[in-house]
Amino acid sequence: MGSKKEMALQVNISTQELWEEMLSSKGLTVVDVYQGWCGPCKPVVSLFQKMRIEVGLDLLHFALAEADCLEVLEKYRGRCEPTFLFYAGGELVALVRGANAPLLQKTIREQLQAEKIVLAEGRERRVIEDEALSDEDECFSHEKEDGDDEDAVSSEKACTLAVIKPDAVVHGKTDEIITKIQEAGFDILTDEERATREAEMRLFYQHRAGEEAFEKLVHHMCSGPSHLLNLTRTEGTEDVVTAWQTLMGPCDPDVARREQPDSLRAQYGTEMPFNAVHGSRDSEDARRELALLFPSFKFSDQVPEAPLGLEAEGEGAGEALCSLEDVD
């Protein structure tokens, strides 16, 4: 009996033989595919523990697999965001990218129920194709694919980028933060929740590529979904970038709690780089960051072109005038 308590939550799959053994196991196995330099996805461990207690040990299994150790995972090598592969009966039945706890929980429940029906009634499994990205250019393709409509939204208001980071999203703080943003007099022109790609974040933070914390920062920003917002402001005389910087507070949450306890980073940040929110530093940053993370939108000619070198989340002020045109 004691052996079950001592059993590791996630079995480490380090050889092809262990991989084949995993494929032959009865029930559903959720495999966390990770990179050796950043390690497994720790934020989901508590969810997996909860699910294991909820459904028992018989049909639900969890595993870890380093992409560099197994040829079958070659296409996942070098990718920063966590990838969770769901296997049943030796077949891939589902896939989740990013540490999206609600989606993982939903997928586990749905796939486990489906596998129970397969085992009890002999039904055929619904198998999916492995859709790992084959070209990093896909990282920058967020155009809508459903339909030929061209719904255009334009604005000559000053705008800036706001990002609710994965640490705040995974803890369910998105709605609270958005409410505070709106109560502070900001209008949201565009918003989107998605997992950012490693290629995006390496470009986004390329000015920090030589810093020791660079890989940790990129890994954090790819660890789960972020909520991306294009903000404008109709109230007050303060420009939108300065106003957003003020609402965010100092970058370091500890400093924010001392100096601006009502700021977002003071309330929702924990420590660097887990400071809950990001904002553009000045007008050029706003333009570059919005162009990178909302590539399907076009900007007015009132702001000159700037190279795609993006600055850090420091203080500063400025604004970008944008004309938002949603294209297919």
UniProtKB/TrEMBL annotation:
InterPro entries recorded for this chain?
Answer: NDK-like_dom, NDK-like_dom_sf, Nucleoside_diP_kinase, Thioredoxin-like_sf, Thioredoxin_CS, Thioredoxin_domain, TXND_domain-containing
Q: Which domain of life is it from?
A: Eukaryota
| PROSITE patterns from the UniProt entry | NDPK_LIKE, THIOREDOXIN_1
Molecular function GO terms recorded = nucleoside diphosphate kinase activity
Q: Which GO terms describe its biological process?
A: CTP biosynthetic process; GTP biosynthetic process; UTP biosynthetic process
Domain (Nucleoside diphosphate kinase-like) spans 157-301
List the Pfam families: NDK, Thioredoxin
Q: Tell me the protein family, please.
A: Belongs to the NDK family.
Q: What is this protein called?
A: NME/NM23 family member 9
The organism that produces this protein has a lineage beginning with:
Eukaryota, Metazoa, Chordata, Craniata, Vertebrata
Gene that encodes it:
NME9
